[in-house]
Amino acid sequence: MRSPLLRYILRRLAWSVLLLFLVVFLTFLVFYELPSADPAVLRAGRLATPEVVAEIREKFGLDEPFYVQFWIYTKGIVTEFDLGFSYYKNVPVREEIFARLPASISVAVGAFVLWMAIALPVGILTALRPRSRSDRAVTGLTLVFLSAPTYWLGLVVLFLFARDIGAFPIVGGAGSYVPLSEDPKAWLESLILPWIVLACGFAGLYARMIGENLREAMAQDFVRTARAKGLTERRVVLRHGLRAGLTPIVTLAALDLGVLLGGTILVETVFNIPGVGRYAVEAIQNADLPAIQGTVLFGAFFIVLAILVSDILYAVLDPRVRY
């Protein structure tokens, strides 16, 4: 007999697959049935003859009914992860996304680690010292960094600290990204500023949320029971209070990381990082429909995956979740 947790996971997995199918359907409907231009004409190019356009329409099944086109497209995604060919570069969109994915992962994961490393200790500090100067400082800094647009903050740090144009040239600037496999030191140096820019917007918010959730958890009966058993305050906070306080953060953290993995468009554009987000910008500028559609689906995949992982972690961390 399957455990309740396993049934819950299978149920969430089925909903995730259904959600991905709906995203594929809506994306296909928008980009193939409601485009601003004929996909066959875009694929053929500006100087193509009517014969070439007709040949392309037949080759890619664009002359078939909607349901036939959708079946061909969905079958290609499921069996081969085929996202089509780029109109602009005439290469498979899948290859372009996979080639740029390591850069996006580097930006997203590094920023996530940085803002959590800042948010956890600061959040604990504000929870244990409510209405103190540190608590007010975190609130003020959170408002400041949340109000600062990402692209503006990126330009500011470039003008201050970039080696090529900065007033205080310390680290690499825009266009200095190097893959980790080629030069780990240059890779780290090129991502310091993007990580800081992304972390500034999230660290204060997460610290505030962790502090509020932990403060609420520390007032619960199970914390008083732990203290009555003679446990040290450090163990009460880290072992009991923090676990309960972090549970609501799991969902938000997974969603934010999923969005970032799908492409950090503004940061990759400002720092000229060849990631998935930058590829999406280039696809929009060139009206490259398959590339736009591929990046949308790729981002949706990471978001749905993040929701699935957060639901599972939530069930594991919080025994009150009903399966």
Give an overview of the whole structure.
Helices cover 74% and strands 0% of the residues. It is mainly alpha-helical. It folds into two domains: 4-80, no CATH class; 100-317, MetI-like fold (Orthogonal Bundle), CATH 1.10.3720.10. The longest helix is centred in the middle third of the chain and has 36 residues, at 93-128. It is flat and about 85 Å long. The two termini are 15 Å apart. The model has no long low-confidence stretch (mean pLDDT 81).
Average pLDDT metric: 81
Total DSSP helices: 13
What is the element string, with H for helices and E for strands? HHHHHHHHHHHHH
What is the CATH architecture descriptor of the largest domain?
Orthogonal Bundle
Beta-strand segment tally: 0
CATH topology of the largest domain: MetI-like fold
Helix/strand/pairing class, anyone? mainly alpha
Main beta-sheet strand count, sense and barrel state: none
* Range of helix content: over 70%
Report the span from N to C terminus.
15 Å
- Give the DSSP E fraction (strand runs of 2 or more residues): under 5%
Structural shape = flat
Q: What's the structural domain tally? A: 2
By CATH, the superfamily of the largest domain comes out as MetI-like
Uncertain stretches of 5 or more adjacent residues: none
CATH class of the largest domain: Mainly Alpha
Rg over alpha carbons: 24 Å
